[in-house]
Write a structure and sequence with these properties.
The structure holds 3 protein chains of 3 kinds. Chain A folds into 2 domains: about 5-230, 3-Layer(aba) Sandwich (Peroxisomal Thiolase, Chain A, domain 1), CATH 3.40.47.10; about 240-390, Peroxisomal Thiolase, Chain A, domain 1 (3-Layer(aba) Sandwich), CATH 3.40.47.10. In chain A, about 35% of the residues lie in helices and about 20% in strands. Chain A contains 12 helices and 12 strands. In chain A, helix 9 packs across helix 10. In chain B, helix 2 (about 55-65) packs across helix 5. The interface between A and B is large, with 59 and 57 residues.
């Protein structure tokens, strides 16, 4: 059964919607700059300029929520523009998030530790499930709501779960993706892991030192053919392959040979019934940590038998948006297919000596892009691959 | 039908690796505590030293399932409502009160929800599909739906489970945020299921998840309709809410035995499994309304058809 | 100076939650990392950085560059002595 994609929406530091994201990608304009919040000033981050209140007003949101939920509402609503809820189409929402309402909880918990006013109501936003419920409420979705929380592969896994639910016949249409706001919790966490680059991150570069974090949300709408007959929507792409596999190597690091990455890419190709040669572009996980990029590069060499297709990491545009990244990168993959374009891996000057793999470093236009493979790898050795194809 | 081949729970009951928990259930008292095995028998010391209570109990339960199951686990689906709260709180304290520039990373690393599934994969050296679902009171049910999808994909040994841990801080959130005054507890249940009937003839027939219900009794009736049965014909009914016992006179409130954690319906599956195994009961229904307007339902059955 | 080594052992046990060990179980020049040693891993290397910072005010910017320093209690102690001298 084919799974069609009939909508997409995004918010990130390179734009408040799909058009703005596309414009930034074409202009090679990064959204990463020195942080402006108390907890981000020390680092270069892909921060969205709006405050929570400004997000609420600017995007005319009806529902209250954590910043994670607000960003999710904005991207999910854009994805669902032109769609409507109706009783004969079972519609679900599956969102990936790693922090949920932590942005609210961590502020309140600081008050608690400092013995100042402790507003317990704030924790009502905390749970990841609640952030998805808030997004669903904004959209009016009540049939099915679920949250996947597998760290940085969450959105890719939410996309995969949605496709499988449509195949099973449990849903006709599902809004899938992920959202994460920047929090002091994650900034401090990645600081404790010592994997920040205090300069601009350089994915797949020999001199890469670490990542820049970002925030945002990306969602797509998946639909069955039967549902499209009723809605009259035209597909912008197909979700043709997906897989998740465990690296089972280390809680945070990737295995040196990319075993989990190889498994997830191979199994996704199997689901799509595609050979590796048919992949026209790879949107890599490419966080710019020394460990990820080497491991992922080795996995590419293995899967593509040395003939690695054009690839890039777009995280030097957006920063690593954690649970949202697979959703944002699904939108970028769709733009690649729609416009026949490949988007560059910014800040790249020197290939990794051990693998010699050269990513795409300029905007490339007028290419036929039929199949895009997109990787998302998370803590816990959680490796996911989705394949998006032209209709 | 999705047969349950083995099931393991760590709860406030003496439930771990017991042949029949149904026989020994006792309602929680204020003195009840989590009854844990000697974790050193299940987890190597190098790993154990870092693990918080939720990780220890979930890994031990998963490992027990793998040891009791012939086939290697080929998919993992875990549900957790609030995830690794001990490490989450620990890291909040760490970075909010840090005096120096360096921060201990261990609590951060282990604070993500999928540390549970990730550590299970690490411990079992298991490379299969590994998913973590979190949807408040329905976290186990959505994990179960994913497990059913995996079984339909032909997986032969799907580990499906749930785990949640209580921390002292949570008590402050009752009753305003956690709108339920029952004792907050911890617990985990893992089981292995597939479509293949083996030694066990007990399985899950269907699972219902409603993000919001306005009339739960009608939703349950519709759920039973689609499975061609009705409430009066169900031998054992397990409910999360004490007041729902009136809905069917022979219903048991499972939270009386687990205490309150949002994924406790997983232990209700264990209760139902043992009841179906050791008594004449042939069908069981779990009705989960533990959180707000969410509704979950799980229908189990003992398969009497000749094999 | 052997006090520093004993002090370090106690701090290592505490920082890394090595609850089953006592200081006497740790040999001064025995390897801390890998299966032949105490079985410590890259997360422990980060914990060593925290330990050196909080107890000795020593900043180690890169855990990978510090592998030799973290080899044993002896190498850690020598590094501390050298840095503090």
């Amino acid at each position: 059964m084919s799974i069609y994609i009939t909508g997409y929406g995004v918010i990130s530091s390179i734009g408040n919607n799909v058009d703005e994201l596309f414009t930034s990608l074409k202009a090679k304009k990064t959204g990463i700059r020195q942080g402006e919040k108390a907890f981000t000033t020390r680092y270069k981050v892909g921060e969205i300029a709006f405050s929570d209140a400004e997000l609420h007003d600017h995007f005319q949101l009806k529902t209250e929520g954590s910043r994670t939920a607000l960003l999710g509402m904005i991207a999910a609503k854009e994805a669902f523009v032109g769609h409507e809820l109706r009783s004969d189409i079972r519609t679900g929402l599956i969102s990936g998030t790693s922090v949920g309402g932590m942005d609210v909880s961590e502020r309140e918990y600081a008050n608690y530790l400092n013995n100042t006013t402790h507003n317990l109501q704030a924790y009502g936003h905390h749970s990841s499930g609640t952030s998805s419920a808030q997004i669903a409420q904004e959209l009016g979705v009540t049939d099915f709501v679920n949250t996947i929380s597998t760290a940085c592969s969450s959105a890719a896994n939410a996309i995969m779960m949605g496709a499988r639910m449509i195949q099973k016949g449990w849903l006709d249409r599902v809004i899938v993706g992920g959202t994460d706001s920047l929090t002091s919790f994650t900034i401090s966490g990645f600081r404790s892991l010592m994997i920040f680059d205090e300069e601009w991150c350089r994915p797949f570069d020999e001199t890469r030192k670490g990542l820049n974090l970002g925030e945002g949300a990306g969602f797509i709408v998946l639909e069955s053919a039967k549902s499209m007959e009723k809605t009259g929507k035209q597909p912008i792409g197909r979700l043709s392959g997906w897989s998740n596999a465990s690296d089972a190597y280390h809680q945070t690091a990737s295995s040196p040979d990319g075993e989990g990455a190889i498994l997830s890419m191979q199994q996704a190709l199997d689901v799509a019934q595609l050979s590796p040669e048919s992949i026209d572009y790879v949107n890599a996980h490419g966080t710019a940590t020394p460990n990820n990029d080497l491991s992922e590069s080795k996995a590419f060499l293995h899967i593509f038998k040395g003939k690695v297709p054009p690839f890039s990491s777009t995280k030097a545009f957006t920063g690593h948006t954690l649970a949202a990244s697979g959703g944002i990168e699904a939108v970028i993959s769709l733009l690649s297919i729609q416009h026949g374009m490949l988007f560059p891996n910014l800040n790249h000057t020197q290939v990794i000596a051990e693998t010699g793999l050269q990513p795409v470093t300029e905007v490339i236009s007028n290419v036929k892009v039929n199949h895009v493979l997109s990787n998302s790898f998370g803590f816990g050795g959680n490796n996911s691959t989705i394949i998006i194809s032209a209709v | 039908m999705y047969y349950i081949h083995t099931i393991a729970s760590i709860t406030h009951q003496d439930s771990f690796q017991q042949a029949n928990v149904w026989n020994t259930l006792t309602p929680l008292t204020p003195e009840s505590t989590l009854i844990t095995p000697d974790y050193k028998l299940f987890i190597p010391p190098a790993a154990l030293r870092r693990l918080s209570p939720i990780l220890r109990m979930a890994i031990a339960a998963a490992k027990s399932c793998q040891e009791n199951n012939e086939d290697k686990i080929d998919a993992i689906s875990i549900g957790t409502a609030l995830g690794c709260l001990t490490d989450t709180e620990k890291f909040l304290v760490t970075f909010h009160s840090a005096q120096s520039d360096t921060l201990s990373p261990t609590a951060f690393i282990q604070s993500t929800h999928n540390t549970i599934g990730g550590q299970i994969s690490l411990d079992l050296k298991n490379h299969s599909y590994n998913m973590t679902h979190t949807q408040n009171g329905l976290s186990f049910e959505v994990a179960l739906m994913d497990a059913i999808l995996c079984a339909d994909d032909g997986k032969k040994a799907v580990l499906v489970g749930a785990a949640d841990e209580a921390i002292g801080f949570l008590k402050q959130l009752q009753p305003d945020i956690i709108q339920d005054n029952r004792e907050l507890t911890s617990g985990t249940t893992c089981c292995i299921l597939s479509r293949e009937r083996k030694a066990s003839s007990i399985g899950i027939v269907d699972c219902l998840v409603r993000a919001e219900t306005s009339d739960w009794q009608t939703d349950i009736s519709d759920f039973l309709d689609r499975n061609e049965t009705k409430i009066a014909d169900i031998d054992a009914v397990f409910v999360s809410q004490l007041e729902d016992v009136k809905y069917v006179d022979h219903a048991v409130c499972y939270i009386d035995y687990t205490g309150l954690y949002y994924s406790a319906s997983a232990f209700a599956v264990h209760m139902a499994y043992d009841k179906l195994t050791h008594t004449n009961a042939k069908t069981a229904l779990i009705i989960n309304r533990v959180c707000g307007n969410q509704l979950g339902a799980i229908l189990l059955q003992k398969d009497e058809a000749p094999h | 100076m052997s006090n520093l080594r004993e002090e370090l052992k106690a701090q290592i046990i505490e920082q890394l939650n090595l609850e089953d060990l006592t200081p006497s179980d740790i040999v001064n020049d025995g390897p801390l990392f890998g299966d032949e040693g105490l079985g410590l891993d890259s997360i422990d290397a980060l914990e060593f950085i925290v330990l050196l910072d909080t107890h000795y005010g020593i900043k180690v910017p890169d855990p990978n560059a510090a592998r030799e320093i973290f080899h044993s209690v002896e190498s850690l102690a020598s590094y501390i002595e050298k840095t503090k001298a």
